[in-house]
Every structure is written in C-alpha cells, then in structure tokens.
Amino acid sequence: MLNVAPYLGRIGYTGPTTPTTDTLRAIHRAHLLTVPFENLDIALDRKILCKEDAFLSKIVDRRRGGFCYEMNGAFAALLRGLGFEVTLLSARVPREDGTETPEFDHMTLRVDLAEPWLADVGFGDCFREPLRLQTGAEQLQDGQKFRIREEGDSFNVEKAEPAGSWNGEYSFSLVPRRLDEFAPMCHYHQTSPESPFTRKRICSRATPDGRITLADRKLIITRQGHREERILESEEEWQAALQNYFQIVL
Length: 250
Fold this sequence. Notes:
By secondary structure, the chain is α+β, with helices and mostly antiparallel strands. It contains seven helices and 13 strands. The strands form two sheets. The protein has an eight-stranded antiparallel sheet, with helices on one face. The protein has a five-stranded antiparallel sheet with strand order 1-10-11-12-13. The protein is globular and about 50 Å long. 32% of the residues are buried.
C-alpha cells in the first residue's frame, strides 16, 4: 500500500482524504497546480520505465513531473492509496488529417464513486477537475466548457472554443487496461522521431489564473487570458527559468 503522506505533501494538499467527490476534485486540481507536464528526461536520453514505482519515485521523491503515463500512473496509485476505485483507460488523440493516434497513445483514468468520473492530470492544458463520465452534458470549469460525446464504442472529450465550436481533445473506451499494456507506446514516445515528445523539450504547469510553459527556449506565461511570450537567449537562462517556475534542477 502506498504511503500517501509524502505524495500529498508533494502536491501541497492538506484537506480531507476520504474518498469523496469533493476530495477527488481538490486533489486533482492540486496535482495540476504543482506537478508539471514535462518530457525533459527524453531529451537527456534517460529511459522512462512504464512502472508504477518508477513514476512515484520521480514525481514524489525527486519532485519532477512527467508525461501522461507517469502522471496518470502515479495519480492512480495515489487515489487507490486513499481508497478510490480507479481503472486505467486507453485514449487516442486526433490528428490534423482527421485520423487518430494508435491505441494506448494516452492514458486516462476512470474513478468510480456514486457515479463514474473521468480524471486526467497528464494531458497538459485540459480540464482541471474531473469530468462526470456522462454523455452530452456541458460541464463548466474555470470559464471553460467541456463535454463527453459518445460515438459507437468510444467516448470523445471535447472543449468549447471561444467561437462556440467544439474541439476534440481525445477519445477513449471503457475497456479496463493494465499498466504494462501502455509500455510499447511509452517506449515509442521516447524513441520515435515521429513522436511529439522527441521533437522539443516541454515543461508546463497550470497556475491559479493561467499557465506557465517552457517550450524549448520559449517562455509562455498566461494570466487571466492574457498571453506573454519571450525567447530565452541561452541554455543558462533556460535552466534558470526551469528552476524558478518549476523548481526543477537538471
């Protein structure tokens, strides 16, 4: 059984820990505000193992972040340690040509309470609190609207654009998955030149009123819808920004 206290300390969470909807929402938000989505080990040629203990060691002990398998894999362990019922789900991401990425391209989580919820702390700029796993209903969070749309055997997470249209984030099925089933795609994303994670370094974290992102040497800070960008002139400046905004020292 996971010792949850160090993990809760990592995300700065001091509230109730009983497995309720309010706890799930609060811990989900706290995770996104403290643990960055990042792929920095890939650029350093450090192998990411698709194993729960490796995820926990990196995020909790070494105070790093990770990409979806690491973030949601570790978060699932935390939730189970608190008494939640959690199921790993495979998700696919839409491409520009209208097709979708392969199965296991993304990991998301089903959490069952009195009703089922979709939790995800590993998809970058998406929903900050879990979504009710019900189709059709618009769900409002922090001024953004989301919905889950059923299509055949799959479900699509969609976010409303300012103009009113809906943009697909990813699709998923309700088939329960094991962690080892994600290992081939976890390896692919670390090694393939076709993977978005081998093309540039990324480190990004939600803030109470926006988001902070390092995309290679571009620093992007969004506050209350206002976006500022700045190019960092050197590797030293990039390292300083990484430490200042994300408390990461490589």
